[in-house]
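re: ur question from earlier - yeah i can do the single chain one, its not a big deal. heres the input i used so u can compare w yours
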Amino acid sequence: ETVPLTDRDREILSGQLFTRGRFARDLAMLPLGLFAGVALCGLPVGLLVLLVAGLDYLLGTSLLQHRVTGLLFLALWVALTLVAFAYSMRHSVAEYRSRFAANAPLRADLDSGVKHCEALRIEEALCVQENEHGGLGYFCRVADGRVIFVTDHESASWEDEDLAAGYRRGVDPRQERFVPTDTLRLCQAAASGYVFEEDFSGAPVPRVEGIYWTDVTRLPDSGTFVRRPWEKIRSTCAQAEKRVDWTEVIERAERSETRR
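and the output i got, formated as tokens:
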């Protein structure tokens, strides 16, 4: 189903564009970055000077008093600064090229003026917990065989005290609030893939308890289809090294309550 972009949709896409104004603001911070880099490169040189001074004191020599030694230290500092600057510039140029390149699909979506929406029939959901921030996400098996990942964006903001209250009852309160159901309406831009809407409706579907996702460094973006087969995902999660430790969260909450 093709649906016209709303004014809000256009505003969101326009906000994703990397404009010359943003580039200029980044350039304005360049002198500060250079100053920090020069100071940082001077740190190992300063430590080396202190080491030589200590040897001078212990051995009764006078290396630091020679002009050649001072020039060597200066040359080392300049060399380190140039290497760090070259590395930083190479990384920055590649970063800005990729950010400007990302504008093309966004502009294509704005020019087309439409977004694509579809109602997905969900048959099963597998819940995972991100290792770093603790948020929950769901791998959802679609009736046509595809697998889509959906993030519960609010789950990472839960406090230990709120989680512990549910854990003492033997449930994860986040899973009580966010329930994957058998219909998922997905609306996204065609070229950039930006997700405008991902709303569940209908009856709850079977799901697996939350576990740590240890197979990848980061979870997929919400609203994206995953290439990995469903059975492979289930098998990997079943072999995860660490499941969510409810006892640890309860103990942290109790220690926090005691301190209060």
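Residues 134 and 156 are 5 Å apart (CA to CA). not sure if urs matches, ping me
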